[in-house]
Write a structure and sequence with these properties.
mainly alpha; two-stranded antiparallel ribbon; elongated
Length: 427
Amino acid sequence: RRAVRLAEERSKQLAAEVEEARLALEEQWERESERMAELERQYAIDARRRQQERETEALLRTARELESDDVPAPQNRPMLQQDDEYLSDDELFERARQNLPEWQRLNRIVYKARSIESQTPAPALPKTEEDLEDDAEVVLPFRKPVTDDPDPQQLDGFRRITLTMSWVLFVVVGLVSLGWVGPWPSMIEAHDGLYSGSTSLMSMAFWHVAAWPILWVGMLLYTSYQWAPSQYSAVRNRTTAWYVSNAMLLAVGAKLLAHFQDWGLEVLASIAASVLLVRAVGSLNRYTERTVKERFLVDMPIGLFTGWMMIFSATTVFTALASHNLSDLLWIPEIIWAILVILVLLVTLSRLTLTGRGRMSIAIGFGFGMIAIAGSRLFGANPSFIIVGVALLGLFVIIAATENRRYQIATAAKQALEYLVYADEED
């Protein structure tokens, strides 16, 4: 009986050891399974991150091809490559070319929705200052750039040819009117120096003619950019080129009329050119520039031309009145008319420069002519310190306000970068 009891105890002990070993083995298997699952999950995360980087490179390459600069962030877009396939770099780029335009369209819809949401009044709930700062949305004060160009038309080619011919006339007639080509004297020497700088209180100094070569170069950049393949049917070119082309022809007419007649008809041509250029700036505001190159080669030349023609038109008006002895129109002294016109021009200038990202080029073109007027009033035969003070003070205020707008928009754009991946942040 004792032997049987000992055998039973050993059997129970052996069974307990076997059960303990089984439990330990199951626990070890469970730990190993969890570790393998964690490794697989980490590997999947790393693989997805690497794939997102490949897809981002392909999308950025596609964006540069489209001359766009916005690509949806990885967390805001689906994967180009499905889980059950593997695409080469070329295949991935081809798929990016197919999907990016649609994603950009959806991104614009989201941007507009956020803008509308930000403008919707919030419910009247008590919030702390920190909550209000966190809830604030960044809304840039200009429209989203149009990245999709319409289909090319035959009129697009005619537009570019017409613009080029207008520029050629703009330069050739300018050379003739300035006396640099041909047998005729310079415009500032014609009609006994009517435009030499001392005819009226708004006459410019003789060196104001230096503005025309600058405008020739600027409009050459604008015209040449029209011939870029990516600009063939661009909406901004379609809406501005006709205004600019006709404005150049009207500027040609103004210089010819100022050179070969003294009835003051150049006033009509110069004012008409200014109106067309203001309309062109309005078109630029409706269709925001897509790239920095477009801003430099389209917005800047048009801005310089617009600012210059505004102040040049005022000069032609006062010169025409002075040539007919009508400077004191309606028995009001010329200086009063000059101050009123300068104030009106400054108000108009502010409404143009404080659009878009801040159109400093318009202020520069206008400022060149205003400085020429100030120089003539300080050192010429028809001095007026009041005109100089009003003009330069107003110009300084507008330039400061425009630069402040540019700074504020640049700051807001940096805050909005969390929604987009830009091509210049590729690294």
